[in-house]
């Protein structure tokens, strides 16, 4: 059964179709487009209309456009609308309206993508589950996710993000969640909230997710925060019920003990006096806390808590958000490895502190490599959009308690220079303006037995350092293959 027919899409968008067609999916990118997709010609860095001909050549069922692009045949299947982004929004609204799915919406300054993936994992075995891919949480990501939702979906998980005030409420009203979860509120996108209440303003913006709740909807909020009262006050205006989670006494869902061990984190929890255990297959107390919030949310959604807890036991974070992997430096010697923590997708003071705590708790290996003593090494890129206090916030990382357990810190980017200057001599590694300089030196900066954290905001591109580290072992493998040849 088609996801969208031309008749359904015309009814949803108010557009005009040049001919009948049926689409199995919705795509905004010709690189990932599958045959049978409806291609949406959004305008971002480039005008999507430039790629319509290519999309049709790759087998797109039709293209959603505001004009007939050059090089496209007269009889090409096109859905022509006044505004492509607005039409995508209408398609998303229609996709949401035609399903009986129970919808969970998630936001937060830190952890919303991981929580979304946790919720997907927790729900997947309990019915047809639909969730956003990657971090599709903005003005086009939310409607795209809704437009892709099959009508027979039982559970849907929608991630909602923001960069500026006023962005969350419209997306929440589009998603119409039955349950809304706020993972945490922290200094992120502070630059956009200068003059809008700072952290309290961010809390109110996050709480705007509750404006989209369906009648009888449930708000799930982190009760450990300095702004939890703000979240609760906003939730009371829109939610029929509020569920709190965290570590503080008196919360509905509470972690009373968190233990991090190799490859896993286990938390002892209680929910309305009922004890249970939360486990995730990765290291970090913040992951266990997010899992607790997800458990509360999916239970409120109508899912089975016990089955959700079992499923979460196998959950690990998506790439670039705290994934751990072993990089083999010398394929001929199995002990010649580096443990890599890839957290290069996003960064703010709260998420960086959580990542440093994971690094501090790691166990380097001694007796291998050049140094013969395993080290905990951090490579940290700029944190962006922190507002006028950004330099002080970067420098303050030097006072993080986790620093006592680290061996060396390398800094990347102009803002991270302030951290480099604030570090004690024993921790101060290299400071470079851009990742390329450090990539050229990476082979001598790391060694077998090390545990290495790479973290920074996406646009500083420290993910390229992650790629360079992964290639260290490949170079070794290529050399060995050459010798055998």
TrEMBL record:
InterPro entries: Mur-like_cat_sf, Mur_ligase_C, Mur_ligase_C_dom_sf, Mur_ligase_cen, Mur_ligase_N, MurCDEF_CellWall_CoF430Synth, MurE/MurF_N, UDP-N-AcMur_synth. Pfam families: Mur_ligase, Mur_ligase_C, Mur_ligase_M. ATP binds at residues 108-114. Pathway: Cell wall biogenesis; peptidoglycan biosynthesis. Keywords: ATP-binding, Cell cycle, Cell division, Cell shape, Cell wall biogenesis/degradation, Cytoplasm, Ligase, Nucleotide-binding, Peptidoglycan synthesis. One of its GO terms (molecular function) is UDP-N-acetylmuramoylalanyl-D-glutamyl-2,6-diaminopimelate-D-alanyl-D-alanine ligase activity. Residues 25-91 form the Mur ligase N-terminal catalytic domain. Its EC number is 6.3.2.10. It catalyses: D-alanyl-D-alanine + UDP-N-acetyl-alpha-D-muramoyl-L-alanyl-gamma-D-glutamyl-meso-2,6-diaminopimelate + ATP = UDP-N-acetyl-alpha-D-muramoyl-L-alanyl-gamma-D-glutamyl-meso-2,6-diaminopimeloyl-D-alanyl-D-alanine + ADP + phosphate + H(+). Residues 106-298 form the Mur ligase central domain. One of its GO terms (biological process) is cell division. Belongs to the MurCDEF family. MurF subfamily. Involved in cell wall formation. Catalyzes the final step in the synthesis of UDP-N-acetylmuramoyl-pentapeptide, the precursor of murein. PANTHER family: UDP-N-ACETYLMURAMOYL-TRIPEPTIDE--D-ALANYL-D-ALANINE LIGASE. This is UDP-N-acetylmuramoyl-tripeptide--D-alanyl-D-alanine ligase. It comes from Wenxinia marina DSM 24838. The gene is murF.
